[in-house]
Amino acid sequence: MKVAVGSDHGGLDLKETVISVLRSLGHEVDDLGTYDRNSCDYPDYAQKVAEGVAAGRYDRGVLICGTGLGMSIAANKVPGIRAAVCNEIYMARMARAHNDANVLCLGARVVGPGVAEEIVRTFFTVEHEGGRHARRVEKIRLLERR
Ligand code: RB5
Q1: Domains along the chain?
Q2: Ligand 1 pocket check for 69: Cβ under 6 Å
């Protein structure tokens, strides 16, 4: 898959771990910033990643801030984005299997690198189950059009 990854200053170190895990899984990764430790605003990076996924330039996105919350709130404002904060593995599995999430949000102040690696592996291997869950995802799409 082609994957866009972004973080704010709080997620910078974990972003490096995430990028190397994604590359080890064979994915093509673009790092859309931030690139240094200067304080910055997470919505700027949420926008870059979410718009890239929504436009089809990327198959999936990963966004990292202190908690994952700000990134997910911002990314979900972009139509077509289903961003899910997953700070443990069951959430990552369900985000894919039930919600067909296309952007994974991580909290660098919540999870360590080992747990984050397992979350990324899970999110990028579990398929959407379809069936009744596809009907529910379709209802989310309809909500966006109102
Ligand atoms: C930045 O201090 C922090 O607010 C941000 O990384 C994130 O946790 C917001 O949701």
Answers
A1: 2-145 (3.40.1400.10)
A2: yes
